[in-house]
Amino acid sequence: MPWKASSVMEECLRFVARLLDGEAMTDVCRDFGVSRKIGYKIYGRYKEQGLEALTDRSRRPVRYANQLPHQVESLIVRLKAEKPHLGARKIRELLVRRLDGDVRVPAKSTIHTVLDRHGLGQARRRAAPPRAARLPPRAWRPMICGVPTSKASSSSAMAGIATC
């Protein structure tokens, strides 16, 4: 028997139709493999909005709580274009002077993120790692606290170890 393909909307429509025919919510939810909480959610949406409520919904957030206003982001980009030598910290200081408390001034890290997003960030030069102190070759190493550094001479020299 070939598989029967059905969309989410068709399944929701069948679900609601069985409820409208008078079947119990518990039985219908058991047959469709959903919890009663989800069943009541689907049925409630159908009663409020009709067939439109049974379509797939986007999971994208309606709003982003910490998103910068478009005007502030464009101001940051414009300031960087006018003065390319300025970094995020100095651009923030200019924003503090220009915005006069009307809008919350973004943090330095947020300004840096905006500059990177628009390709205006500067690659930071990192300091070269310090050179490790190089030890002399094994034959030239001195004895440390009377203990020889090579294994070959350690057994013979253990008898005369001087303490530090």
Draw up the topology in text.
Layout: H1 8-20, H2 25-32, H3 36-49, H4 70-82, H5 88-99, H6 108-117, H7 154-157
Helix pairs in contact: 1-2, 1-3, 2-3, 5-6
Structure report:
It is a single chain. Helices cover 45% and strands 0% of the residues. With 164 residues, the chain is an all-alpha fold. Among the domains are: 8-54; 70-117, Arc Repressor Mutant, subunit A (Orthogonal Bundle), CATH 1.10.10. The chain is elongated, with a radius of gyration of 36 Å. The protein starts with 7 loop residues before the first helix and ends in a 7-residue tail after the last helix. The relative contact order is 0.07.
What characteristics describe this protein?
mainly alpha; about 45% helix; elongated; Arc Repressor Mutant, subunit A
Question: How many distinct helices?
Answer: 7
Rg calculated over all Cα atoms:
36 Å
CATH topology of the domain at 70-117: Arc Repressor Mutant, subunit A
Low-confidence stretches: none
Please identify, by name, the CATH architecture of the domain at 70-117. Orthogonal Bundle
Structural class by sheet pairing and helices: mainly alpha
Proportion in β-strands: under 5%
First-to-last CA distance: 88 Å
Helix content: 40-55%
Name the helix and strand elements from N-terminus to C-terminus, one letter apiece. HHHHHHH
How many runs of DSSP E, i.e. beta strands? 0
Outline the biggest β-sheet.
none
Overall spatial form: elongated
* Oligomeric assembly: single chain
Name of the level-1 CATH class of the domain at 70-117? Mainly Alpha
